[in-house]
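sanity check this:
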Amino acid sequence: MIKITTHSPEETIRAGEKLGSLLGPGDMIAYKGGLGAGKTTFTRGIAIGMGLGDNVTSPTFALVNEYRGDKMNLYHFDMYRIENGDDLESTGFYDYPFEENAAVIEWSENIVEFLPDSTIYVTIDTLGENEREITIEEGGRFADSWD
């Protein structure tokens, strides 16, 4: 488990960038955190770390945003309105080639029973206006790579 405290959106982006640089094909990140916690900001950092640029927006109304790269894509899901397996099926979630790409899922609490055992959980807690505590549960996979 990795714990990071950030004091600005820029620091949150840098933390996401570090994680993004460590991701590989098949990695799935499930976010836990309330509205306005910084999930999309962290995702912006992940995209930068993966070499996909910083043009990241919340997928709230689209359900999924795709960021395409030369080697790997990033799928950014919002599961806020998903209540059961049938809802998840109707999103086309299972049609994405996750084994070749990476994915981040906002409101993952709604689909936790459908996520693979290898899922990386990222909890973002709001400590203040710009301060966040970010906990990354990755089974020790990235601990040696983290500063």
